[in-house]
Amino acid sequence: MTRRNAILLTSLCGICVIILSAFDIFRGRRDTMYQSALRTNAASIVLPPGIFVSTLGSDANAGLYSHSPVRSVPMGLQRAAQYGRTNVFVAKGVYSRGLGISAGSDGVIITNCAGLALLGGWENNFFSRSPSDRSVLDGGNAAYRVLLISNAQSLRVTGFAIVRGGTTAISGGGAAVIGVTSASLSDLSIMSNVGYNGGGMFVSNSTGITVSSSCFFSNYAQNYGGALMCVHSGDITIQNAHMLQGFGAAHAGGIYAQFSSNLVASNIFILSNNGGSGAAFSLDQTTNITFIRLTAASNALASQVIYLNNAGSFSLRNSFITNNAINGNMVLLSTARSLIISGCVFSGSGITTYGIQELIAETGQTFVSNGFMMGSMTWLYHDTVIADTVFTVDGAGIANFNIEGQTGAAVSSGNYLY
Fold first, then answer.
1. Are strands 108-111 and 100-101 parallel, antiparallel or unpaired?
2. 103 in helix, strand or coil?
3. What digits encode the pLDDT tens for the residues 91-133?
4. In a 10 Å sphere around its CB, with 0-12 CB exposed, 13-18 middle and 19+ buried, how is residue 130 labelled?
5. Strands 366-368, 411-413: parallel, antiparallel or unpaired by DSSP?
C-alpha cells in the first residue's frame, strides 16, 4: 500500500470514528465486551481463550497467545477452527490483500461455523480496546468482497473498517451475509465499496441479524441499496447507524429491502444519499417494517425520499424528513397497507411536489401529529380520492387532511403546518 493510500484510509476511518464517537458521548456508552472475563494482576490482563492476530505477527505462529499472534485474519480463523477457539482477537492496523487478508478471493470468509466472535480494534499488546478503534480490512479495489459470512449462526463481528471492496458484478462489495442465523455486527466503518446490490452490505436468506453503531460512507450499488440491501430475510435490526453519500442507481442510496419481514431501524441518520427511487430507503414487498427516530436529510437525485411498494404494516415514527432536494415526493406509497406515519416532520427544498402521495387509495392508514413545512412543497397530499391538498389551514388544506374520510385513513388527526 502506498503512503498516499494509507493516509486516505486513515482519513476516511477518522470521519466515521468522529461520527460514531458522538454516539458514545451521547449515550455514555462503554465497551463492556468480555469485562466479566478479564482478570487483572501486577503482570497481565487475561482475555478469554482465543486466537490473536496482529500486523506484527507471523502466520507460522499458532496464535494462541497475545505475544505470538498470527499475521493474517484468514489464518486466525483457520487456527480458531484447528484449536477449537471461538474468539479471534485482531489488533489495530491495516490488513490488505495478500498481507492480512486473502488476495485471490473474498478477503475474509467466515463459513460453516457457530458461536464465533471476530473482534477487531485491539491494541497490539491486546491489553485494551476502545469502541472507536478499528482494524482495517482493505479490499484494494479488487474484484472481490472484503468480508463474506455464510452458512453460519450465532456470530459476532465488531471493531472493523471494511473498505474498497467489490465490483458491480457481485452483491455486497464490502460485506455479504448469506444464509446466516443470528449475528451481531457492530462498531463497523463500511466505506468506499461497490456492488451490484448492497454496495456496503448485502444480507440475503438470513434471520436475526443486528447491525449497530456503524457508519456506511460512500458506498455504491449499480442496482439497489447503496449502503445496505436485505432480501429474503427476516428479524433484521439496524440501530445507531449513519449512512452517508451512498448511491443506489435504481433504488435507495441508503437502505433497500425486498421480500423481507420484521425489520426495525432506530436512531438512523441517512444523509446526502442519491438513488433512482427512494434516496433514503425503498421497501418492496416487505411486511412489518418500523423506522423510529430516522433523520433523512440532504438526499437528492431521486424521485422520492422514501418509496414503499407493496409494503404492509409499515410504521414511520418520530422522524425528520427534511431539506431533501427531491423533485417528487417526500413519501411515495404504492399499495402500502396498514401504514402508520406519526410524529414526523416533513420539509422539501422548494422543488418537491408532494409531502405524501398515494398512487393507489388504501384504507386503514394512520396519519397523526405530523408537521409539514409551508413553502417547501407544492402540495401537501395526493391520492386517487383527494387530489392535490393545498398548504392552507382551511377546509381545502390541512383541515381536510385531518378528516379520515378525505384520505381513507382510519385515523388522521393532529397534523399541522409550520
1. unpaired
2. coil
3. 999 999 999 999 989 999 999 999 999 999 999 999 998 888 9
4. middle
5. parallel
Query: What percentage of residues in the chain have a pLDDT greater than 70?
Result: 85
Residue 384: all three cell numbers together? 386517487
97, 146 Cβ separation under 8 angstroms: no
Residue matched to cell numbers 447503496: 226
Q: Which three cell numbers stand for residue 11?
A: 482519513
The secondary structure of residue 240, as a DSSP letter, is: E
E runs forming strands in 108-146:
108-111, 117-122, 135-138
Task: List residues bridging with 403 in a β-sheet.
Answer: none
β-bridge partners, 158: 119, 186
Radius of gyration of the chain (CA): 23
Amino acid at 11: S
Integer Cα distance of 211 and 174 in angstroms? 14
- The pLDDT value recorded for residue 357 is 82
Residues 122-180: tens digit of each pLDDT: 999 999 988 889 999 999 999 999 999 999 999 999 999 999 999 999 999 999 999 99
Q: What is the pLDDT of residues 296-349, one digit of tens each?
A: 999 887 788 998 988 888 999 999 999 888 777 788 877 777 889 999 999 887
Q: What is the pTM of this model?
A: 0.88
DSSP state of 324: -
Give the C-alpha separation, 220 to 166, whole Å.
Answer: 10
What's CA 308's distance to the chain center, in Å?
Answer: 18
Q: Which residue has the cell 417528487?
A: 328
Alpha-carbon distance of 139 to 5, in angstroms, equals 12
Query: Cα 72 to chain center, whole Å?
Result: 27
CB crowding 337-357: b at 16 or more within 10 Å, else e: bbbbbbbbbbbbeeebbbbbb
CA–CA distances in Å: residue 57 to residues 68, 75, 90, 121, 132:
6, 11, 11, 15, 23
Give the β-pairing of 45-46 and 39-40.
Answer: antiparallel
Q: What is the per-residue DSSP string for 372-416?
A: E-TTSEEEEEE-SSS--B-S-SSTTTHHHHTSHHHHT-SEEES-E
d(CA 156, CA 213): 13
